[in-house]
Design a protein that fits this description.
Number of strands of chain A: 5
Distance between the termini of chain A: 54 Å
Strand order of the largest sheet of chain B: 3-7-1-14-11-12-13
CATH class of the largest domain in chain A: Alpha Beta
CATH superfamily of the largest domain in chain A: Beta-grasp domain
Strand content of chain B: 15-25%
Structural class of chain A: alpha+beta
CATH topology of the largest domain in chain A: Ubiquitin-like (UB roll)
Shape of chain B: globular
Radius of gyration of chain B: 28 Å
Largest sheet of chain B: 7 strands, mixed
Number of helices of chain B: 19
Distance between the termini of chain B: 39 Å
CATH architecture of the largest domain in chain B: 2-Layer Sandwich
CATH architecture of the largest domain in chain A: Roll
Number of domains of chain A: 2
CATH superfamily of the largest domain in chain B: Aldehyde oxidase/xanthine dehydrogenase, molybdopterin binding domain
Structural class of chain B: alpha+beta
Order of helices and strands of chain A: EEHEEEHHHH
Oligomer: heterodimer
Helix content of chain A: 25-40%
CATH class of the largest domain in chain B: Alpha Beta
Shape of chain A: globular
Number of domains of chain B: 3
Strand content of chain A: 5-15%
CATH topology of the largest domain in chain B: Aldehyde Oxidoreductase, domain 4
Strand order of the largest sheet of chain A: 2-1-5-3-4
């Protein structure tokens, strides 16, 4: 099958690949770039395990062709932490026990980051509606909502030079 | 966080992090960074892909398979058929329940989406191209999807392979309790209520589907099977027995697993096909099922048609229970049930109530469906049992005009009756049912809600309150009742203390998200005083972990948790000897507190566990073996019996039939608690998997056997929007026979929640003449009832 050359940005790095036109974006990330933090949980765009940001917009990467990402900027879970420093959402999911098996977590965090970029101070129901396209089978969502609330508070706070304290036990 | 209900404060410091501390999970850093290692994340050099051709028919003869076009596709290397497997005797495989299941059919397909043949190719996409190019010629056969029709005398015999003596679709009959005594008591009952209750077929639908990589190395004679398994050691032994490969040359590794809930216990044909393909081509072969395959083909839970009758006095004292059930197992009895009982633990159906007479019978039946009888987050048929008894208790209360909470209080087994022998033979270890219900009633404000309900009803609004006071049965198991192909259901832990006072422990159970890397470290921290941060827990590699039977049926804490505590105590016993040597004191003069041995009366003369660990390698007493390690294989004397009381409040839209769960209070008692945060997380998740089949999930089939909910478009997992904001509370009644008094908690809420929700919905509609509604209580179903009763918006 013929291939097509694409160039795109992934987590701030310029990347290129020769891909079949039918290759899904999620398979480009996972199978070609070996960035396996983005997961696949269904084939109907329902579960959101594959959620990434495309030019800042939330997208289900199992429902987008790699060739459609030509020239775009993709952000994945691997791009969330700044070295040893976790993103506020990653820290909050850990603090609040917002994950169990961890399979939906990357998609959930990416979707939450999109939500908080649009709405920095969401209500409980706005958070729930904001992650309605991401299924979790383990947590019952209670602690995911709490985690997103914690991260929202953290991200709204004035920038501090001190790293956030890391509690030894969950609140 | 809601009331964590800890009766006692933790005995260790927060830095040590023993039992009772909400220690943050040690496994989380890799998951929140996207660095988990799930099966589809693994890529091995030279790896090939396997994909599966599946049947569009629920029952058909295979007239021929033409793979020639598929094999012309560059990159398609092989197409494996049932005929190929038959040559090696691998076309059928045994099931845990003593039946057999096709790996690939040689002549007949038995359910829609059954595996027909497998394509091996050089990439994921080319394997899918190969699947699309295989031509299969089918001749449809009569389809049976209704188990009652399957039992009719002239029904088409679905499994002629069972021979002329079994020319019917009846698999087995099983009964428990005293039929004659129950009949007598039932006849004498002043009040008798009966109902037909159907618990529909559902699917666990963990967000990660199933998959594996089989990696055969012919030079080394080594098979490494990376797979999504909740029971890797059992897989290794079964593979050794079936394939003839020597067991020491088989290694099963699970890596991280994206949810299990029972669906990753069985062996599916895809795993076997990957093994066969790798043995054939000598390269690693990966099989990953997609969601529609997962929801249509691997294995399913419930599908129980229950006729249940409850006898009582006019005052509401329960006297007797009689149950007759038809169990739809699909085309084979592949139930993931390691008990000696074909209907598992279904006879726990007498529940939380004290009465003398019960009789339960179940008949297993074949239909043209994929295998049933696999758990959905519950021990073997407990959810079905709890649903039936909790629904019937509510119907009885409504029939005699007694408040359902009061009726439960008057029938509960009382705290001083434990250990309590049930009429079907179980021995409940401990419980305080009135305390849990009282706590739930207080938390939700029950009396006020009943007043509100009366006011709303007067205005025509539909509001209901439902209670479920369930008894769970978990922790398989005592080996006299539980085994997997003869292997007794113990579980294990091996602890090694290194010279620098750091700990490596390996367990025979397996996490699919439960947090074992944290909670098992907490058990060791509690017993030995090492900080949780210094303890590493490993599992899921059969080359290194001690033999265990895996994680399901909430058995990790009851069985392997006990082994862990006992192994730690063996280490403490040896540590005492070393401490006595170091302190030049008699062992009897030493006392153990806060991670150190000190001389009684001279607390300044002490040795910490870390100092003792170093001495175990550098300065141990003459005649003692060096080192500090222990292993324990624990066979529990009994199951554990967690319990709880749940109360649900629903509002029903008169115009649409939509049920909204306004509040849900869950009071659980799982004995002593290792990590309150993780216990609450288990309950939140369990409640959501009880909520899901109550209102949304059902795998149903049309008369041709077509699966009507084969993708997430139709099989509706609850999202964050519908899922209630769960309110949790605890009581603590330790298990008297468990070394740390724990009981297991992973499945309680899935078992306990559905009848609370169903009772609430029926309670909202009882005044209209509604007695029972089978789950899922969808808007369509409720709307049809409202319409029939003349209720409009």
């Amino acid at each position: 099958m013929t291939t097509q050359h694409i160039e795109l940005t992934v987590n701030g790095e310029a990347r290129e690949a020769d891909v079949e036109p039918r290759l899904l974006l999620v398979h480009l990330l996972r199978d070609v770039f070996l960035m396996t933090g983005t997961h696949i949980g269904c084939d109907t765009s329902n579960c959101g395990a594959c959620t990434v940001l495309v030019d800042g917009e939330s997208a289900k990467s199992c429902t987008m062709l790699a060739v459609s990402a030509e020239g775009r900027s993709i952000k994945t879970i691997e791009g969330m932490a700044d070295g040893a420093n976790l993103h506020a959402l990653q820290q909050a999911f850990w603090d609040q026990h917002g994950l169990q098996c961890g399979f939906c977590t990357p998609g959930m965090i990416m979707q939450a980051s999109w939500l908080l970029a649009r709405n920095p101070d969401p209500t409980d129901m706005e958070i729930r509606e904001g992650i309605a396209g991401n299924l979790c089978r383990c947590t019952g969502y209670v602690n995911i909502v709490k985690a997103i609330e914690q991260a929202a508070t953290e991200l709204r706070a004035p920038a501090s030079t001190d790293a956030p304290a890391e509690p030894a036990v969950a609140s | 966080m809601a009331d964590t209900g800890l009766k006692e404060t933790p005995q260790t410091t927060e830095a040590v992090g023993g039992m009772g501390h909400s220690v943050k999970r040690k496994e989380d850093p890799r998951f929140i960074r996207g660095q988990g290692e799930y099966i589809d994340d693994l890529v091995l050099p030279g790896m090939l892909w396997l994909d599966i051709v599946r049947s569009p028919y629920a029952h058909a003869t295979i007239k021929g398979i033409d793979a020639s076009e598929a094999l012309k596709i560059p990159g398609v290397l092989a197409v494996i058929t049932g005929a190929d497997l038959e040559k090696a005797g691998l076309h059928w495989m045994p099931t845990l329940a003593g039946d057999k299941q096709m790996v690939l059919p040689t002549d007949t397909v038995m359910y829609q989406s059954q595996e027909v043949c497998a394509v091996v190719a050089t990439s994921r996409y080319i394997a899918a191209d190969g699947v699309a190019a295989v031509l299969v010629d089918y001749e449809p056969l009569p389809v049976i999807v209704d188990p009652f029709k399957a039992l009719e005398p002239d029904a088409f015999v679905l499994r002629p392979d069972r021979g002329p003596d079994k020319a019917n679709n009846h698999i087995w009959h099983w009964e428990s309790g005293d039929r004659a005594a129950t009949d007598t008591a039932m006849e004498a009952s002043e009040v008798r209520v009966s109902e037909d209750i159907y618990i529909p077929r559902i699917h666990v639908a963990s967000i990660e589907t199933c998959g594996c990589i089989a990696d055969w190395n012919a030079t080394r004679g080594q098979m490494t099977l990376h797979m999504t398994s909740q029971a890797p050691h059992a897989i290794r032994t079964v593979l050794a027995l079936v394939s003839g490969l020597p067991e020491q040359n088989i290694r099963v590794k699970t890596h991280d697993i994206g949810g299990g809930f029972g669906g990753k216990v069985p062996v599916y044909p895809g795993y076997v096909l990957a093994v066969v393909a790798s043995l054939t081509v000598g390269k690693p072969v990966k099989w990953i099922e997609d969601r529609s395959e997962n929801l249509q083909a691997d294995s399913f839970a419930r599908d129980y048609h229950i006729h249940v009758e409850l006898g009582a006095t006019k005052a509401g004292k329960i006297t007797s229970l009689k149950v007759k059930t038809v169990a739809d197992h699909g085309y084979t009895d592949a139930a993931a049930d390691p008990s000696k009982f074909p209907a598992g633990l279904f006879n726990v159906i007498t529940g939380s109530y004290d009465f003398d007479n019960a009789f339960v019978e179940v008949d297993g039946v074949y239909t043209n469906k994929p295998p049933g009888g696999v758990a959905y987050r519950c021990s073997f048929r407990v959810t079905e049992a709890v649903h039936a008894i909790e629904r019937m208790v509510d119907i009885l209360a409504h029939d005699i005009g007694k408040d359902p909470a009061q009726l439960r209080m008057e029938n509960f087994i009382q705290p001083d009756q434990f250990p309590y022998k049930t009429p079907t033979g179980w021995s409940y270890d401990s419980g305080d049912y009135p305390r849990a219900l009282k706590k739930a009633l207080d938390m939700i404000g029950y009396d006020d809600l009943r007043k509100e309900q009366l006011e709303k009803r007067a205005k025509g609004e539909l509001m209901g309150i439902g209670i479920s006071s369930f008894t769970e049965i978990v922790g398989a198991g005592p080996s006299h009742d539980f085994d997997i192909l003869g292997i007794k259901m113990f579980d294990s832990c091996e602890i090694r203390v290194h010279p620098t006072g750091k700990v490596l422990a390996r367990i025979g159970v397996q996490t699919q998200g439960q947090g074992h890397e944290t909670t098992f470290a907490q058990i060791i921290a509690e017993e030995l005083g090492f900080p949780v941060a210094d303890i590493k827990i490993e599992y899921g590699d059969t080359d290194t972990a001690p033999y265990g039977l895996g994680t399901y049926a909430s058995r990790s804490t009851p069985v392997a948790g006990a082994a862990t505590a006992i192994a730690a105590r063996k280490i403490r016993d040896k540590s005492r000897k070393i401490a006595a040597h170091l302190l030049e004191a008699s062992e009897d003069d030493l006392e153990w507190t806060n991670g150190k041995f000190s001389v009684k009366g001279s607390p300044d003369k002490s040795k910490t566990i870390q100092e003792i660990a170093f001495a175990a390698y550098t300065n141990h007493p003459a005649g003692m073996e060096a080192g500090l390690e222990a292993v324990d294989y624990y066979d529990p004397p009994n199951l554990t019996f967690p319990f709880g009381s749940y109360i649900c409040v629903v509002d029903i839209d008169r115009g649409t039939g939509q049920v909204t769960v306004r509040r849900f209070v869950a009071v659980d008692d799982c004995g002593n608690i290792i990590n309150p945060m993780i216990v609450d997380g288990q309950i939140h998740g369990g409640l959501t998997m009880g909520f899901a089949p109550s209102l949304y999930e059902e795998i149903s089939y049309d008369e041709l056997g077509n699966n009507l909910a084969g993708t997430f478009m139709d099989y509706l997992l609850p999202t964050a929007v519908e899922t209630p904001a769960w309110e949790t509370g605890k009581t603590i009644t330790p298990s008297p026979h468990h070394p740390i008094g724990a009981k297991g908690v992973g499945e309680s809420a899935t078992v306990g929640a559905p009848p609370a929700i169903a009772n609430a919905v029926v309670d909202a509609l009882w005044h209209l003449g509604v007695r029972n509604i089978d789950i899922p209580m969808t808007p369509q179903k409720i709307w049809a009832i409202l319409n029939e009763k003349g209720v409009t918006a």
